[in-house]
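Record type: monomer structure entry
Structure origin: computed from sequence
Chain ID: A
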Amino acid sequence: VSTQSTWGIKTKMPPKKETFTILKDEEHWNTYYDESVKKLLVVDVYPSWSGPCEILFPTWKSLAATIDDFEKRLEFLLFDANKIKPPRNISVSCRPKFLFVLQGKVIDEVNGANVPEILDKIQRYI
């Protein structure tokens, strides 16, 4: 993607990276749900019929812009529980559920789109 600056010089802009990853299948999930993954994973677990919690997408983008070394420290994953088997003891309901995963372990969770609680946990664990 090229853009024109105010001085008439064309510059090349890097492609815009999404702030979240949509997990495709169990194999894809297992590449993240592994002890070698050092960054905090915030996983939106949802049933197919309801879809991910889109109301939080602007919050994820804002965090990506404000957290130093965001891509090295934090990643948001979208997890369709009808396509991928959730970790043990994780139930799925019509309410959004957010798992906090670090080095292959679920360390915390938030039920519902409680943005202050989600942000507090992100700050605590990164």
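Annotation 1: Strands lie at 2-4, 10-12, 20-22, 40-46, 74-80, 97-102, 105-111.
Annotation 2: Residues 7 and 13 are 16 Å apart (CA to CA).
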